[in-house]
Amino acid sequence: MKNPLVIDGHSLRIKDVVQVAKAHRPVVLHRDALTTLNRVRAAVEQLLQEKKPFYGINTGFGALAEKSIPQSDLKKLQHHLILSHAVGIGEPLSINSARALMLLRANALASGFSGCRGKIPEHLLTLLNAGCAPYVPCKGSVGASGDLAPLAHLGLLLLGIGDAFVQGKLVSAKKALQHAGLSPLILEAKEGLSLINGTQAMAAVGCLAVNDAEQLCLLADIIGACSLEALMGIDIPFDPRIHKARPHAGQAASAKLLRAMLEGSQIRKQNIQCNKVQDAYSLRCMPQVHGASRGAVAHVQDILACEINSATDNPLVFERKHGIDVLSGGNFHGQPLALALDYLAIATSELANISERRMEQMLNPNLSCGLPPFLAPQAGINSGFMIMQVAAASLVNENKVLSHPASTDSIPTSANREDHVSMGMTSANKAAQIVENTYIVLATELLMACQGIDLRTPAKPSKRVRRVVELVRAEIPFAPEDRLFSVDLKKAIALCKSGVLT
User: Are 206 and 300 a contacting pair, CB within 8 Å?
Assistant: First the structure.
C-alpha cells in the first residue's frame, strides 16, 4: 500500500481528508488505536454483566433513554437504530464528501472513546480503500444529536442494506461489501450508536468546502489582478505601508499577492486614455475584502481541524485504573461547526459579490477606460459578455440568499429532549453550494479580464498576469465575435478548479 495515511483519532489534518476524499489515498488504522479500541470494548462487555442502565448501551435512545432493554435484545436494538434513523432526504452527498464522511467517522472511533470493537473502523477503512462509498442523502440532519440520519446511511452500508457506490457506480450495499471482501456486520451493544452519533457529515462537507474556499481566496486575488490590468487600474492601494497601518493578516497577504501579480506592468505606462485618480472599491479594496474572507477561512479551518480529531458521540467511554466510566454528555452538538460554516458561507459569498462588481467595471464603457461595450470588438452585432454577467449576477443573488445563517434557528425534536439543535448540516450544504457558485463567478471574471487585456494590445500586462492569460488562451481563444460562451465558461471553471492558476 503506497504512502498510506495512518489514523489514530488525534492527528488527522484537513489536507489528509482532501487527499483521501479526492485522490483516494489509502488509509490504515494505527496499531495502538486498534489495541485501545479492543481493550475498551472488552471493558464495555464486562460492564454489561452488571445489568445497570447505561444510556445507549442497554437503554433506548433520546426521549426513550429511560426504557431498559433486555440483554437478549441488545443486538436488535442497535440494528433497529440504524434502520429507523436512515431517513435522509434529497440528492446524495458527492462521492468525495461520502468518502470524507467514512474517514472522519473511522477517525472519531479510532480515538477510543466510543466503546466499539476495532473491526468497526477497520471495516470502514476496508470499504474506503476498495473505492466504496455510502449513499448518503444530503438533507435530514438538524446537527444534534449529531448527524443522525446521514450517519445512519453510513451504517446501512456496513449492514449490507440499501444502496452504495463502487468506483462511482451506484450498486447495492451488498455488492459493495462483496467488492471489498466483507460480510454484513452484526452490531453489538453500543455500536450502532457509535456509528451515528457525531458531527462527521457536516464536518466532511465542511472540510472539502473550506479547502476549496482557501483556493478561491487565492483565485480572487489572481483574477482580480487580471481585471485591474484590463481596466488600467492603479496599484498604489497595495503599497505595503497602507496594510502595515491596518495589520490584518489576511489583508496583508492579499495585498502582497496583488503586488507580486502586478509587478512590471506596462499597461498604464503605455496607455494614456485613462486619467483616474482612484479606482472603484471593487478594485481598490481587494486586499480589505478578499483579506477578510481569508481571515474567515483560516478561522473555519481552525474549528474543523479541532473537530475532526474530536470524540463526538454519546455516551463516551473513559478508561480508569480499574475499569471504565461511561459518561453521557453533549459533544455531538454541532454548534461550533454550524457557526463556523455559516461564517464560511458569508465569507465566500463576498468573493463572488465583489467579483461581479469588477465585471461591471469591464463591461460598462462609461467605466472601462476605453474598452468596447461588453468587451465586444463590434458591439451591436455582437453582445459580447453581456449575458455572462447576467448569469453571474444570478449566482451572486443565490449566494446572498444562502448566506442567511442556519445556526440561528433551532427546532426542538425528540419529544423536546433535544430542545436546542445546531442545524449545522444545513450550514454545511449551503456553504458547499456557495463555494461551487463562486468558482463559476470567478471563472466568468477570468474570461472577461483576459478579453480586456487582449484588447489592450500592444500594451503588455505584468509577467505574472501575462502567464495567467497564456494559461487561459491555451484552452480558450480570444473572442473576436460572439460564440457559444457556455463552452468557454466550462473550460474556465475547470481551469480554476485544477489549481494551475494558483
Answer: yes
Rounded Cα distance, 84 and 91, in Å: 19
The CA–CA distances, whole Å, from 260 to 81, 257, 326, 465 equal 56, 5, 56, 10
Q: Are 180 and 124 in contact (CB under 8 A)?
A: no
Q: Is 343 a catalytic residue?
A: no
Give the model's pLDDT for residue 61: 72
User: Residue 411: what pLDDT?
Assistant: 94
Q: Which long-range contacts (CB under 8 A, 24 or more apart) does 413-418 make?
A: 413/142, 414/62, 414/63, 415/62, 415/63, 416/63, 417/62, 417/63, 417/65, 418/62, 418/142, 418/144, 418/145
pLDDT of residue 343: 98
Q: How many CB atoms neighbour CB 459 within 10 A?
A: 16
Q: Which of 55, 135, 343, 439 is catalytic?
A: 55
The ranges of the chain with pLDDT < 50 are none
Q: Which of 274, 243, 273, 275 is nearest to 259 (CA)?
A: 243
Q: Which three three-digit cell numbers place residue 218?
A: 487565492
What the chain holds in terms of domains, given with CATH numbers, is 5-198 (1.10.275.10), 206-312+348-411+421-498 (1.20.200.10)
Instruction: Output the pTM of the full model.
Output: 0.96
DSSP 47-103: HHTT----TTTSB--GGGTT-B--GGGHHHHHHHHHHHH---EEEEPPHHHHHHHHH
Which of 260, 265, 268 lies closest to 218, judged by CA?
Answer: 260
- Residue type present at position 497: K
Contact (Cβ atoms closer than 8 angstroms) between residue 155 and residue 184: no
Beta strand pairing call for 27-29 and 5-7? parallel
What is the three-state SS of 353-366? HHHHHHHHHHHCCC
> Would the CA dihedral through 437, 100, 126, 195 be positive or negative?
negative
Q: Give the whole-angstrom CA distance, residue 140 versus residue 163.
A: 17
